[in-house]
Amino acid sequence: MSARDTDWDGVRLHVVTGKGGTGKTTVAAALALALASGGRKVLLAEVEGRQGIAQLFDCPPLPYEERKVAVAPGGGDVYALAIDTEAALIEYLEMFYNLKRAGKAMTKLGVVDFVTTIAPGLRDVILTGKTSEAVRRREKDGSRLYDAVVMDAPPTGRITKFLNVNHEVSGLAKMGPIRNHADTVMRVLRSPETAVHFVTLLEEMPVQETLDGIHDLDEADLPIGGIMINMEHPSALEPDHLAAAGDGSLDLDEIVRGIKSAGLEHGAEDIARALAAEATEHARRTAMQRREKERLAESPHPRYTLPLLSDGIDLAGLYRLAETLRDQGAA
């Protein structure tokens, strides 16, 4: 495997967050493929129970076990895990209290659901703990089992509280296995081996939520990664035509002549007006994208731009996005 410099050398836990609808899971999957390129082994972990990873990789719903879902360019492997809170809690009880049988009994009685509902912080402790354990896990020869772990994390509005939950637990539990576990997880999450990446669209609300999330992470002393701008719309017009569309000065007569020269004589004027309106909307969107990009440029963190895929997201699209991330130095 050849060495390759990236913006995130030394990072082993990549946490991917973003406002709903920004394509967070898609970007997390593409990042996992990019990180696995060249013969590496990467785990992609899902914590929200939506089976989004299975849909992206066109495979059956994932069980609570690490399962290979893709081969990356150059021979690397991507494994996926949909973390089940109940199963992870049983592991937790067995690991620290030797209570595996009690955990199974609690599941049958519905106690686990009850406890995680009235104490949602416990769910976050379990999810972050399982992911950090995968980062630390080693083979029998002492080597790391995974070269990197990518977490498809909760949305931006909840990410700081989600990642910082073990700090709160550590403050409540002054000693014992719970305190030790919480401290171990926070050492991973606050170390240089972790980076929290934000996925956004070039729209006002996702950009503002991204900037707010970066501020909140900084306040909580959690490591900030890059900003991944997803689904950027390319400009379909030349700069002078784009400017004319934006200020409403497109020459309708010229558009009509072009339509008629293409053999569309009937209704050419109506078609021209519709095209002019579409061009104006395109100019508005392009201006908005430029404005929001300028806002993001004020942040000191690396930025990566992913294109809008006109054919939608499938496996081929994921590989294309992974290649784009690698080309920009994200993996």
From TrEMBL:
**Gene3D superfamilies recorded:** P-loop containing nucleotide triphosphate hydrolases
The source organism is Actinomadura craniellae
Output the superkingdom of the source species. Answer: Bacteria
GO MF terms listed in the record are: ATP binding; ATP hydrolysis activity
Which residue numbers delimit the ArsA/GET3 Anion-transporting ATPase-like domain?
13-187
**Annotated protein name in UniProt:** ATPase
InterPro entries from the entry? ArsA/GET3_ATPase-like, ATPase_ArsA/GET3, P-loop_NTPase
